[in-house]
């Protein structure tokens, strides 16, 4: 589940207000601000953080102004404004453009400089360096995270959000009462506490960087704020655990373990601490525990990824097997169809050939020749169909020029008794081959239907012309001259033509023309996409 929308913005704003209330809980009156104004000041500084995800640059500029104003008023809220300003700059660096972020950083540098400098004191070189690095670092870190986040494979942010929230809760709740006791300003200690906790949110993605940061914070706390050492040790152990989960190399894991032991020893061993074997064993076991947990979770995660990969491979294999079974069944059906139809057509061709030699020249001999040639063509089409069913992805071979097929069909139907008027635009040769081939098949089927249903003597006009968007085919026949006995029909010819045209992405219409005849019109697009297994 991903955290989105208003609930997360409300949570951020409430957290910012709560942070300021924690830091100013023991603050009394100042020269300009009474203690009763602590709550309004907290709302004034914290509530805009609810908009930081949408307008981080604007929020950063607002917080820079708030930092300057609260510092001039002597309000303790300036410490919270300094912390929240760094957070807003990090979000700006992560989500905003470089120029906009640079403007926010520049304003933040001046506000930070005035906050650091004591009243009446000049800004030294060290102060300026500190004032520059403090706003620049979160902005640069945000920009770095943005550039590296695009290469991450894991997009789920809920574990990261939980780690960050838990880290902030640990650092703030366990150290906020001692922020005034150190030698550093309150806002510096608070900022380090918040950054230390938030850094756990990127531990899964940048485990080495977070581990290094936690080590630096632990050493700094041991030097400047002893009350926060135990909290830093906890964060360091969590970082070690996440590092062990994400890093597969045992060499790096051992290096992290040794480093963790040294850091923990620095934190817990004092000048008067007696070093015994038992204490050393406890310390080493303490550091080994998160490493063991991290390695276990890493192995479980790798096993889950492997299992998912195996499942995906099995699914692909199952699909491939189904596909192979379908192809095998199609080939079997195609072979059966070929054997049955080829047997009868072959017998028809043989009988027509024999009758041709016995018949005298004339219309009967021409009809027998036509039957023989048509039979040979049918046998060749059956072989092509069988090859296509065996390999649906293969484009069928064209036996003739589509234009020649159209002319031959017109001549054959004319010989059978139709009065055919063919209008074949020579420009059709410039259209795609698949469209011309389909047009030839439509002309063949359309003329055959006219002969079946209208009979000899019917006048037919066939038009094949190119258009800007493809190829247009029109077959229009007039009223049958006399009543005829209709030839048997399967009723599948028109349905087959519709399926062919639909597969190519075109349109087909057929019906009475209003004058006693019939009109068949088809449009074939110039750029069509033939789906695998479509009929040729």
In words, what does this structure look like?
The protein is of the alpha+beta class and 536 residues long. The protein has helices at residues 6-23, 38-46, 56-73, 77-95, 98-116, 125-149, 158-175, 186-198, 207-224, 229-246, 250-268, 277-358, 363-390, 402-415, 433-453, 493-503; strands at residues 419-424, 459-467, 470-477, 507-512, 518-525. Mean pLDDT is 79; it is low at 148-152 and 530-536.
Topology:
Blueprint: H1 6-23, H2 38-46, H3 56-73, H4 77-95, H5 98-116, H6 125-149, H7 158-175, H8 186-198, H9 207-224, H10 229-246, H11 250-268, H12 277-358, H13 363-390, H14 402-415, E1 419-424, H15 433-453, E2 459-467, E3 470-477, H16 493-503, E4 507-512, E5 518-525
Parallel strand pairs: 1-2
Antiparallel strand pairs: 2-3, 3-5, 4-5
Helix pairs in contact: 1-2, 1-4, 2-4, 3-4, 3-5, 4-5, 4-6, 4-8, 5-6, 7-8, 9-10, 9-11, 10-11, 10-12, 11-12, 12-13, 14-15, 15-16
